[in-house]
Design goal:
By secondary structure, the protein is of the alpha/beta class. The chain folds into 3 domains: 179 residues, 3-Layer(bba) Sandwich (FAD/NAD(P)-binding domain), CATH 3.50.50.60; 123 residues, FAD/NAD(P)-binding domain, CATH 3.50.50; 103 residues, Enolase-like, domain 1, CATH 3.30.390. It is 30% helix and 26% strand. Strands 1, 2, 3, 4, 5, 6 and 18 form a 7-stranded mixed β-sheet that branches. Helix 6 links the parallel strand 8 and strand 9. The longest helix is centred in the N-terminal third of the chain and has 24 residues. One of its GO terms (molecular function) is oxidoreductase activity. Keywords: FAD, Flavoprotein, NAD, Nucleotide-binding.
Length: 463
């Protein structure tokens, strides 16, 4: 029988949904162990997601901006050495892994073990690693096992790469393909399409639904799609039939509606059809509840088993890194309070950005959701065509749309399409969380010449 190690907190996973709580509780004097299959402190965001993909995306954004500036004297079509882009991406990942290791070394009561964790009972976890099985008995458990890539099942799908092959440390893809076909029009597929097109790749994107970015606000998506580079070929309502290997790469056969089958040829193919929560083995066997979007947890991050919490992608509430961090801290605060729900996650104030070129972002209530729920609202609008920074950058499409409660003019939410959207949405999210009004926003002197001036100007259309 293996030795059973007694701990106060055990986290299944060591990413953003785990380590904020682990650090907080370890520094409070609790014995904490994290287990992760990767053997390092990081989630998928650093391993293969937002950090490495945005490292590539920023190079693409600079190249796209340089092309726009070519009429004013900058060369318009400088070649891209994609191996150097990958080296930059890898360097950022390695630097952050080293940073995390240093942070963990400063907390002696926190330990990380490499291996796959499974539940033996509601307090006991077995971790299978290179050294065999170790067992831990924990007073509290946070399930932070994240999500994984969904692979489609069409014939020949194994010929296609996925986001891990593009963005993991030392990735499979190290040369920029001359042409790329992407299956899936969600945020991962569309972001990848715009960044590689900006780097000089010919891109086709196949989406089975009637529009890309399904589930996101339709007006925001329509505005964004109107600003995407028309050189990106987007096929909507397309059913993938099969993929085949060719002398020059891959051939993807598809049908749009009831039309005859067609084929698109490319050097490389990518699938980006979504992610699924990773529920640890044994969780349902101990009475844990799992729903269609992952482990069922309330906004205190507590599951159906009171001393077990679920944070991050695995609970499906808000599958974003910054949401995972906040949920991890919510769980930690409630553990420190003896299991009482003294803190709760607020999904209505979480900013979300689609890092396409250009960007789109939103926070809080958006028009489609308001109409669906019958929530009345009034709108303030600011177009970037009027904005000094957008004019400076030659990015005058899009704008800021703010939704306010009638009468009180309390800010309910907003969408941004265009310049600096990812930066601006945080300011709007803080205003939503703080229950600020149009008058509050109108009175704040955002600095000039920055696109954030548009937040106050949108509010001033109503006051």
């Amino acid at each position: 029988m293996s030795t059973v190690h007694e701990v106060d907190l055990f986290t299944i996973g060591a990413g953003g949904a785990a380590y904020p709580a682990a650090f907080l509780l370890a520094r409070a004097g609790l014995r904490v162990v994290m287990a992760d299959t990767k053997g390092v402190m990081s989630g998928n965001c650093l391993a293969e997601g937002c950090v490495p993909s945005k490292s590539v995306r920023e190079v693409a954004a600079h190249r796209a901006r340089q092309r726009r500036f070519s009429p004013w004297g900058l060369p318009g079509e400088l070649p891209v050495d994609y191996r150097k882009v990958v080296a930059h991406k890898d360097r950022v990942q390695k630097d952050r892994y080293d940073q995390h290791a240093r942070e963990m070394a400063e907390v002696p009561s926190l330990r990380l073990v490499a291996g796959r964790a499974r539940f033996l009972d509601d307090h006991t976890i077995a971790v299978e690693g290179n050294r065999g099985e170790e067992r831990y008995r924990a007073r509290h458990i946070i399930v932070a096992s994240g999500s994984d890539i969904v692979r489609p099942s069409f014939p020949g799908a194994d010929l296609f790469l996925d986001s891990r092959d593009f963005f993991a440390l030392n990735p499979v893809l190290t040369e920029r393909p001359s042409s790329l076909v992407i299956v899936g029009g969600g945020y991962i597929g569309l972001e990848t399409a715009t960044m590689f097109h900006a780097l000089g790749t010919e891109v086709s994107l196949i989406e089975k639904g009637p529009r890309v970015l399904s589930g996101m606000d339709s007006a925001m998506v329509k505005e964004l799609c109107g600003l995407l580079d028309p050189g990106i070929r987007i096929l909507r309502g397309a059913t993938v039939l099969k993929a085949e290997k060719t002398d020059s790469g891959v051939a993807l056969h598809y049908r749009v509606g009831e039309s005859s089958p067609e084929v698109v040829h490319a050097e490389k193919g990518m699938v980006a059809v979504g992610r699924r929560p990773v529920v640890p083995e044994g969780f349902e066997g101990i009475g844990g509840e799992v729903g269609p979007h992952g482990i069922v947890a309330d906004l205190s991050c507590q599951t159906s088993i009171p001393h077990i919490y679920a944070a991050g992608d695995v609970n499906g509430i808000s599958p974003l890194f910054h949401s995972a961090v906040r949920q991890s801290l919510v769980a930690a605060h409630n553990i420190l309070a003896g299991g009482r729900a003294v803190d709760a996650f607020n999904p209505a104030a979480v900013p979300v950005t689609v890092f396409t070129l250009p960007e789109a972002a939103w926070v809080g209530l958006v028009p489609d959701e308001a109409h669906r729920r019958g929530i009345p609202f009034v709108t303030g609008r600011y177009d970037f065509a009027e904005d000094s920074r957008a004019q400076i950058l030659g990015e005058t499409g899009g704008g800021i749309t703010l939704l306010f409660e009638p009468g009180s003019l309390r800010l309910l939410g907003g969408t941004i399409v265009g310049v600096d959207a990812a930066s601006l949405v945080g300011e709007i999210g803080l205003a939503v969380a703080g229950r600020l009004t149009a008058r509050d926003l109108a009175h704040f002197p955002d600095q000039h010449p920055m696109a954030a001036e548009g937040v106050g100007k949108a509010a001033r259309t109503l006051v």
